[in-house]
Queue: 4 jobs
Job 1
Amino acid sequence: MRRSRLRSLAAPLSTAALSLSLALAAPSAAQAHAPGRSPAPARGHAPAACSPYVGITGFSDQLDKTSVAGTPVSELSGFAHDTDGRLLAVGDSSYLYTLDPRTDDVLSAQPLAHRDGTILDSEAVAVNPDGTRLVTDETAPSVSLFSRSGRELGALPVPDALKVAPAGRATHNLTFEGLALLPGGRTLVASMEGALTGDAPDLRRFQTWQRIGRSDAFRLGPQYAFRTDPGLDVSDITSTGDGRLLVLERTYTSGVGNTVHLVLADPRGATDVAGVDVLTDGQRGVRPVAARTIADIGACPSLGATAKQPQPNPLLDNIEGVTVDGRGPAGTLRVLLVSDDNANPVQTTRLYRLTARLPR
């Protein structure tokens, strides 16, 4: 199954998509501002168009190179909402940050560690209905359950093939990069950043787990094949609330900068490939996750953003986290992105606010 690419957006649009495209094309008040801070537009103001389906309402660099209680706010890689509505973000350096969703201020930084004291390369987070946290460790790789106080309570089973070589076929630093809990809280999905050795280079495995009863325990569920846009890796996933996922894909080219795509994916109807040793393009009997690229973030208006290193669009940076931040008018979704500055002085911790009308 071939993905509908961005170039297909130039084709005739549906009435709903055309209406959105015209609305998004309206000039945004956010385009006039001091560099480094683009305030959200006034209520009801149209966002600036990135594509017929996605618009940008603003960005903020206020977290860049800051700290909370002496802990640097840096290397943010994944987002989720806590049960009280606050925003949680994980950092690669084994911290879980709590943010005020109204002001973007960081309220606290909680250290994370495995039971044996080793720190995590924490890349993604999801929150159980009881408030316990599920956090990925890209190094192990693992998905661990943590209490609100930051104590590791246990870990989910991981298929052998998804472990880092020589134990499995994954590559170091290219394992569990995204995590999402689907509606109802019964199904958890983790996305592999890179392809397994032997699989086609554009195919990533999405592993699921099924909750056991009403507990916080999960058992292994189906595994799906997801085809990325050429040359891009999966950096995060989030639930759209209707059984589908928003998938964040990105790459970096030295001297050029970042490429970041937002993809709408529907795992329903995909083939369970848990028992398939090697995935190839066009493989008989394997139906990958249905996917459609709905925006190239580099095509968004820059809104006056500045970059510390070469970028195709100064708005871009190493965007690694995505979450749905609520619902807007007429069925739109509010989407929040964050970039990982890798604790690098020429990269920026930047928050992006988007709106999206999802095609059916």
Job 2
Amino acid sequence: MAISHLSSGEPISLMPYGKTVSGERSVALFKSEELEVIRLVLAAGKTFPSHSVPGEITLQCLEGSIEVTTDGDVQTLSANQLMFLAGGVDHGLLALTDASALLTIVLHR
């Protein structure tokens, strides 16, 4: 089954899931030739292994808290905080609590 992405001009809510966050799944909201936006959901204790992507990214924590490791440096990203990472930067995630975030990736083809 193909994932349904947002159409141009279509709004979507980014309100926190609240108590139901642990039962939600990550979902790609849209993808174009140059940009991908994902609602990332991580249950407490879940990790996203260290990796890098060619394009710049932003990670905006919508709820909960996420530990972000970049090149050996560890930062905690909490609700209502945004982090920018340059393209090619190794980064990994650890959900300190149930969390959701808006992940934006600039795609280099």
Job 3
Amino acid sequence: MTSSSSAEHAQAAYRLRFDWGLSGARALAENARPGDVAVVVDVLSFTTTLCVAVEAGIEVHPYPWAAVDAPAYAAARGATLARGRREGLDTGSVSLSPASFEGVTDVERVVLPSPNGSAIAFALADAGVTVLGACLRNATAVGAWLRAATERISVVAAGERWPDRELRPAVEDLWGAGAVLTSLGLESASPEARTAAAAYDTMRGDLAAALRACASGRELVGAGFARDVEIAAAVDVAAVVPVLRSEAFVDGSRSAGARTPHA
């Protein structure tokens, strides 16, 4: 890839940018500048679960999915290790399911493995940008926080994976990204970012029904996790802004614009 094509794929001519998945995140973060901010959107379910946990005052450490050293990583930080969705349901433990965090009062910090959102957050942070987590629950709060930013803002829809591990663009993440971008206004937005905003605008009148009816929503409902979809569909009910500081997401809503890059 030439430097010219790399700049084009990074949407470098625009302040507001949008792309998909881990590769898209890396492209957007190429040649990151101080003050650049990236927003990870993984509606079903990493960033929704992240949002619910931070709403409960829990510090969230993202971690790679199925990492064999995850228990030791959590123990070293005095954190609870979140389980897979089904395992969490069977054991009554916190998990990737946002519903598992409802009413939780005895957890201060959690390690939350995720196959998509967590990996993207790590890649963006390693590039030196400030990383936020957004979903439909806190899209407007994240947009308000971002309005203090003076540098580039990249919004990354995590998407899902096909069985062969290829990226499956997931419409719920497109809508979540569009909600954040819409809350910012679209001045100096790339065509990719404008398209995400337009997708959100098309569905915003009935997002709850759309989320239940989309492929990911139907999959979760069919597996017995309808409550997760309901939680994810609650638009703008949360004021928290999860910001990745050092190795954990904490609520940055009380310090809007105080962007501290990953160390």
Job 4
Amino acid sequence: MIKAQISEIKTLLGSTKNIVIVPHKNPDGDAMGSTLGLYHYLKLQQHNATVIAPNDYPDFLQWLPGNETVMIYENDKDYSQTLIDKADLIFTLDFNAFHRTGDMANSLEESDATKIMIDHHQQPDDYAKYTYSDVEMSSTCEMVYNFIEMLSDSDKIDARIATCLYTGIMTDTGSFRYRSTTSRTHKVIGNLIDKGADNTQIHNNVLDTNSYSRFQLLGRALQNLKVIPELRTAYITLSQEELDKYQFKKGDTEGFVNYGLSLKGIIFAVIFIENRQDNLIKISFRSKGNFSVNQFSRSHFNGGGHDNAAGGRSESTLESTVDKFISILPQYKNELSQT
């Protein structure tokens, strides 16, 4: 984001505005951490800001400061639409294409509000007047920290903002394990701790939330784990019946795909999760090294994301989706062998 754009945004934020802040559908830690972190910053500047999430999010994120103020679009579409219609500014965080917001997409696209995108996913759509896009960033939360710093307001970061931003960086970097974690990321994290983020408590709040039924579901997922050693690939399937049997709730399968990736010799891991309510198969892709799951997902499963972490979907049955995946894999034998 160039200095001229920052100057224009500072002017826009120089007077009280009606602002809507939106994460993607099925928001994760980075999505909720970035939106709520920005929310607290804008409220400190006396703006009328509201976070509107397309749908609900896991319990392990509902302790975040400001959680009680979040509007859920699918639960109150009329009031959410009123806020969107009245908005002077709309911030879209942790996504770069309107379809990532599900049922909110048309409302956002048709809004006359000035749109500001902050996101680190590849190949952004050109819908925002102001775009801060950096695919090398660890997380959108780190970008929000930078955005506040660009506005010369890093001194305004308080414990609430710091807690939200720390949470998103921590979750999107796998507790600082992924390649996107840079020395700059650690400096930001250090500053957030200095500003009041309680790192121990945040990790406990996010990670120490397992239930007996979730462990049973994990056990089933691991029983379903299949390995294709010659293609250095592992995949997991979970049917709707299996989800129902173990009382699945939103967020329970978070991180399951990484078990496949942790196997010795595996560089490509996938989980296929059936969702009969939405009539689709939700797919998560993870990889190590240079194998781009972003390109794989975009090419074959209507998705995208990052080089080593991406999502996709299929409107076929679980069985036919897996069959398609297996049939495609040999096309990537060279890439999977060389990575």
